[in-house]
Every structure is written in structure tokens, then in C-alpha cells.
Write a structure and sequence with these properties.
Length: 357
């Protein structure tokens, strides 16, 4: 890649200004099992409200009234009358980057077609990034490619994890060669190296293989990777290939990673459909890690202990995602972080030190 970028994409563990969430209202996202979902979002928002502002896109009518009643009283919550089609704001919200010259924020607005046109209508979701940038008061770059936020993960130092099954899929970017996609990622995010983690995904994942279910940076030197806790799991071989790819890979500076296995729960089915349960769908906010749990005592506890060891300066908050995952996502999918603006290099150093890992 030889396109220079004016931007840099902060790692999720850097200091954040806010979290963005879309209030759930689409009954088809959780068919036959929607009733517990608003309470699940309430618990998520309560946890984040304790450490930073939360902006909630609540639409209008009954959805807005419910959001106001359930979370509108919280001191750090702001509710906005922005219409959405679905709750998975990670994928259609803007990816916030910083300008290299002055540290100010800009939102990258990727093209969005609901994971390859799977779930129309999606016009409201496709317009949400523009509305969010307008509320924040920051400029917006409209990308040339279809991309969802859940398909991207960074170390904040120029390295990106993603999958070909999403960004190079004909249902997103037909005719785009790898080189063109990488150049666009460099232009928009300041990425210097793209690692394509193409071993395999999760059964039941309708995104075609989002990286935030498969592998995540936890600090610049360390990546957690989903592996299977069940020898008979159809996911097992592909997840092991992901681990092998990462173990042979290096970051933008040419350094190898520490690769740590994060075993998934045993396979679970609802109405004969596999649900894509993965502890990699954790969320970072200031000083905390919100970790999805799935009512599997052994793997839940192992994930809690591992993440506590990997984030010694943060509080790990286990949050039940047993019902939420019937919508085929968890807490990272349901949120989008807004990093703090960086006024100058000295302020930036303070941000990195205060955020911790």
C-alpha cells in the first residue's frame, strides 16, 4: 500500500469520549424472543453510564418512549430521535478516526447494505453515520467501499485485522481486488498493514465472518483468538487455522504477536439454528471490559479469568448475552465507540497513559 493517510484510527482501549447505541425495536432481529432484549440493552447502558457518556439512537414513537422510560433518567445518557432499522450500530455507525495534524475527530462513513443485502430495508441504518457525525459536530469522510465496523479491528498502531469473506465478498465489493481495498483502508484509517484472518468463521454468523467474533487486539502486543472448547464443534478446524495464521503473522512494525486462545462455549441451538457465541465480542469503555457470558459456567468463568489477567488495570464486567445472541450478535456488535479528541502530541501521550490496558 502506498497511499498516505491524514488520519489514524485509535485502538479501542484508548480514552473514549462516548459510546453510541441504537435502541432495539426490530422484532424480526430476535424472532419470537424479543421480550427480554430491551432489558439486556438497559443493563448494557447502565454499565457504560458509570464510566462515560452514552448516546442512544431511539427513533420515534413507542421505541423512543421505551428508551426514555428505561434509560433516559441516567445522568450520562443522551437520547436522540434518529431512526434506525436495526440495533447493530457497530456495523453502520461511523468509525471515528483522528487527524494526524491536530488530533481532531472525523467519522468514516462506510457504504452499508445490511451484510450483503440480507436484511432490507436498511436505508435508515445507512444514513445513521451522517446523523451521528452531525450530532458530534465532526466532519465525515464517505468511503468508496461497503464495510461494517464489526469486520475491522486495530492495534491503534497501523495494524488491522479483517477477513476476506466480508470485505472481498461479491455481496459487498464486487470487482475490488485486494490491493484496492487495502489502499482504501489505509486512506481512511491510516492502516499500514492488513492481516486477512481467513481460516474460518462461526456457524450461525450471518455477517459472513466478522473479525470481532474471531480475533481481537487486547494491547499492541497481544491478540485473543476464538477457539473451540468442543472437539466435535464444526467451527473447530477453521478457528484453529485462524490461530495458526495469527501465530505466523507480525504487526506493522514487523513484530510477532502473543496469541492467546479464548475458547467459545459449547455449541448451542435455538429452533435448530446455531447461535454464534464468542467471548471475542467484548466491549471496552473507560476503565472497564464488558464481557458477554452465555450461561455456560465452565467457559464463562474461564473467559472472565483470562480477560481479567489480560486487562489488569480494568474492571471486567460479565454481562449475560444468552438472549441477545439470538439476534446473532453481542455487546461489541451493539455499540460504537467515540474516541476522545487529541489536541496535541502531549495531550495524546496523556490519553494513552490514562486509558491503560
Amino acid at each position: 500500500m502506498n497511499i498516505e493517510s491524514a488520519y489514524t484510527w485509535p485502538a479501542e482501549w484508548e480514552l473514549q469520549a462516548a459510546t453510541w447505541i441504537a435502541w432495539p425495536h426490530n422484532l424480526d432481529t430476535w424472532p419470537g424472543r424479543f421480550e427480554p432484549i430491551p432489558e439486556c440493552f438497559r443493563r448494557l447502558i447502565v454499565a457504560i453510564n458509570d464510566v462515560q457518556p452514552v448516546h442512544v439512537l431511539a427513533g420515534a414513537g413507542d421505541s423512543a418512549a421505551q428508551a426514555q422510560q428505561m434509560v433516559g433518567h441516567l445522568p450520562n445518557v443522551r437520547i436522540h430521535p434518529v431512526m434506525t432499522n436495526d440495533a447493530w450500530i457497530r456495523d453502520y455507525g461511523p468509525t471515528f478516526v483522528r487527524r494526524r495534524d491536530d488530533g481532531s475527530l472525523l467519522g468514516v462513513d462506510w457504504k452499508y447494505n445490511a451484510w450483503g443485502g440480507k436484511y432490507p430495508p436498511y436505508a435508515n441504518d445507512a444514513a445513521a453515520a451522517e446523523a451521528i457525525c452531525r450530532i458530534v459536530g465532526c466532519p465525515r469522510n464517505v468511503s468508496a467501499i461497503y464495510c461494517e465496523g464489526g469486520s475491522l479491528d486495530t492495534d491503534g498502531q497501523g495494524t488491522l485485522l479483517t477477513t476476506s469473506s466480508c470485505l472481498l465478498n461479491p455481496n459487498r465489493n464486487p470487482g475490488w481486488p485486494v490491493k484496492w481495498v487495502e489502499e482504501e483502508l489505509r486512506r481512511q484509517l491510516g492502516i499500514r498493514k492488513v492481516l486477512w484472518i481467513d481460516g474460518g468463521g462461526l456457524e450461525g454468523d450471518d455477517t459472513d465472518g466478522h473479525i470481532d467474533q474471531l480475533a481481537r487486539f487486547v494491547n499492541p502486543e497481544t491478540v485473543v483468538v476464538a477457539t473451540s472448547s468442543d472437539n466435535n464443534d464444526p467451527n473447530r478446524a477453521g478457528l484453529e487455522q485462524n490461530r495458526a495464521l495469527l501465530e505466523k503473522s507480525s504487526n506493522a512494525a514487523g513484530e510477532r504477536f502473543q496469541v492467546v486462545a479464548l475458547p467459545t462455549p459449547p455449541p448451542r441451538y435455538i429452533d435448530n439454528a446455531r447461535v454464534p457465541e464468542s467471548y471475542c465480542n467484548f466491549l471496552l469503555a473507560n476503565g472497564i471490559v464488558i464481557l458477554p457470558t452465555f450461561r455456560q459456567e465452565h467457559t464463562d468463568q474461564a473467559a472472565i479469568e483470562l480477560m481479567s489477567a489480560l486487562f489488569p488495570s480494568r474492571t471486567v464486567i460479565p454481562l449475560d448475552a444468552y438472549d441477545l445472541v439470538w439476534g446473532l450478535g453481542a455487546f461489541h456488535c451493539a455499540t460504537q465507540q467515540q474516541p476522545a479528541a487529541e489536541i496535541n502530541s502531549t495531550a495524546g501521550e496523556r490519553i494513552r497513559q490514562s486509558a491503560g490496558s
